[in-house]
Amino acid sequence: MATFKAIRIDKSEAGYQAAFADFDDADLMNGDVTVRVTHSTVNYKDGLAVTGKSPVVRRFPMIPGIDFAGIVEASTHPAWKVGDEVILNGWGLGETHLGGYAQKARVKGDWLVPLPQGLTCAQAMAIGTAGYTAMLSVLALELHGLSPAMGPAIVTGAAGGVGSIAVALLAKAGWRVIASTGRPQEADWLKSLGAAEVLDRSELSAPGRPLGKERWAAGVDSVGSHTLANVLAQTSYGGAVAACGLAQGMDLPATVAPFILRGVSLLGIDSVMCPKPRRMAAWARLASDLDADKLASLTTNVPFDAALDTARSILEGKIRGRVVVEIG
Ligand code: NDP
User: What is the DSSP-derived secondary structure letter of residue 224?
Assistant: First the structure.
C-alpha cells in the first residue's frame, strides 16, 4: 500500500481544517517501526485537536489521534518484529508526531507497548488513553497508601471515558464508588459498572466553601475547575485526589485549606510522557482487572468515516463511555 487513508489537519489563512486525505508512505515522519493501524479511539483531546479549540496540534499538516493499536509491518528496532501486536498512547502522537487516525503510522519503537495478553487490539482501544489514564490514577492513589478501608472514592465525569473506566477499576479494587455525573439517565449503567451511589454533578460544579463535610477518602477527577476544588474540600483527613482532566475547566479555584488542615494530597496524572515501566504496569493491571463485559458495555464502535464527527461531539459531553474507531 503506497498510499493510505488518514485524517489531515491543516491550518492556513483559510482557517483550521480537518478532513480525510490520501497520504503516501513518504509523508510519514521518522521512526524505526511502521505499524498497520487497526484501531484508534476518540479521546477528549482528539476533540480538541480536530476542532482546534485548544492548541493540541503543534505541527501542520497533522494526522490527529493520540492513540492506536495495530500490527507491526516493518521494524529496525530490536524489540519489535513484523506481526507483533502493539499499542501506542501519547508521546506526542497526534500533537507533534503524525497520529492514529491513519491506516499507517511510523513511530519510535521505544514508544510502543506490547498488546497485553488477554486483550484484543479492539479491547485495548476501548480502554485507550482514557482508560489507561484512569488506571494511572488508581495506581497513584494506591501508591499513596490509600485503601478502601479508609472510606469511599469519588469519580467525577463518571459517564465519560476516563470516569466510567475509573468507576469499574475502583469497584473491582474494593472501593465504595460514588459516581458524579450530569447524566442521571446513566445512573443504572454506572451502577452496573460498580458505582454504589450516583451524585448529581451540580452538587460539585459551582463555587464552594474552602472546607466541607468529609465525604470520601479518595478521588479520580477528570473535570478540574470548581469540581476539583469541591472534591478536595470534601476529602477526608489524609486522603488524596488524582487530578487528570479539565472537562469543566483548566482553572483550580481552591484554597490550601484541605492540604494544610486535613493533610489532603493532590496527585497529578500525566499519560503522555509517563515512563515506560509505569505504562507497562498500568496495561498489565487493565488486562487483569477490567471485566470484559463491563468494558463492552461502555464501548461504542464507529467506522473510520465517523471519527471526525464523533471527535467533535465528545467536547459537548454527549459521548457515553468510550468510542473505538475501526481503522483497519
Ligand atoms: P469525556 O468527554 O469522555 O468525559 C468527560 C466527562 O466530564 C463528560 O462525560 C462529563 O461527564 C464531564 N463533563 C463534561 N463537561 C463538564 C462540565 N462543564 N462540568 C462538569 N463535568 C463535565 O472525556 P475523557 O474521559 O476522554 O477525558 C476526560 C478529561 O480527562 C479531559 O479533560 C481529558 O483531556 C483528560 N485526560 C487527561 C489525560 C492525562 O494524561 N492527564 C489523558 C486522558 C484524558 P458526566 O456526563 O458524567 O457529567
Answer: B
User: Parallel, antiparallel, or unpaired: how do β-strands 104-107 and 85-89 relate?
Assistant: unpaired
Q: Percentage of residues in the chain with pLDDT exceeding 70?
A: 100
> What number does the ligand 1 atom closest to the CA of 321 have?
3
- Bridge partner residues of 70 (DSSP): 37, 86
Q: Which pLDDT band holds residue 171 (cuts at 50, 70, 90)?
A: very high
Q: Span 5-34, mean pLDDT?
A: 94
Q: Which atom of ligand 1 is nearest to the CA of 247?
A: 32
DSSP 123-143: HHHHHHHHHHHHHHHHHHHHH
User: Ligand 1 centroid vs 5 CA: distance in angstroms?
Assistant: 29
Q: What are phi and psi of 194, to 5 degrees?
A: 130, 0
Question: What CATH code would you report for 3-115+298-326?
Answer: 3.90.180.10
CB of residue 306 inside a 6 A radius of ligand 1: no
CB-ligand 1 contact for 193 (6 Å cutoff): no
Instruction: Tell me, in angstroms, the distance from the centre of ligand 1 to residue 75's CA.
Output: 35
Domain 129-268 classified CATH 3.40.50.720? yes
What pLDDT score was predicted for residue 318? 83
228 within ligand 1 shell (Cβ under 6 A): no
Helices (H), 198-322: 202-205, 225-233, 257-262, 276-289, 292-297, 307-314
Q: Where are the domains of the chain?
A: 3-115+298-326, 129-268
